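Chapter review: from sequence to fold.
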Amino acid sequence: MKFLTKFLILLALLQAFPGAAKPAQLSRLTVMSYNIRQGSANDGTNSWEFRYPATAMMIEDQKPDVFGIQEAMSYQILFIEDTCRDYRHVGVGRDNGKNAGEHVSIFYNRKTVSLVEWGTFWLSETPDKPSKGWDAACRRTTTWAILKSKASGKKFLFVNTHFDHAGKKAREESGPMIMSRIAAINKDNLPVVLLGDFNAQISDPALEEICSSMKNARKIAADTDSEGSFNGWGKSSRAIDHIFYSGFRSCTSFETVVKPYAGRKFISDHYPVKAVLVF
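The token string follows.
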């Protein structure tokens, strides 16, 4: 009788609070980094005029919730937003803080993610204005955005960057600077995604501070690969595009997207890299 009584009480409680019997709903976030290769580059048959349909096909196929793009000219940004209608972007041109020069922009799927606030800073000794830092060959920027997952209602900080390709000191200074900026922006201790083209392999000292504070999706993911992300139109294979994260429950997968689109083996001189994170 005692067992039956306890069973009936438990059954009544479950009926009264049906949600109590269900495990917490996990929410997934798909993120991607994509160095698009600047549209003004003279790459012969790999020039933007021949490969732009492949970029749109890749984005629509992979369907990231948020992705960071590097090297994009303003017309490449507009092409993506006009063609991939679910996406909106934030970011500025590195040369004047408006439209001039390459953009390190953040695109988000407005059906799955909403924008809270965003900003840009330069990787230099004067980060709040267009400037070239240390021994860098180019002006380099980092774009950040606080976004909100519509599925979970949770906010997160998304940071997209592009380290200099030539300046060793510039790369070494950029990592600590970004981590300092993240700490200043992330006052609510939100989950963080930091990704981009770091122009450095994971063993490079330039990534030491980032690696000590954040998890490397390529290394941590249950399902991962070891493909090189920089393909150099088939002449190279180096993993220099990375996805780091903190504050998420887990990373279920990491993928270097080597799939061809629109009949093109290379949609850029970099393969996109993608990860699925769990809140």
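Two observations follow directly from the output. The chain has six helices and twelve strands. The mean pLDDT is 93.
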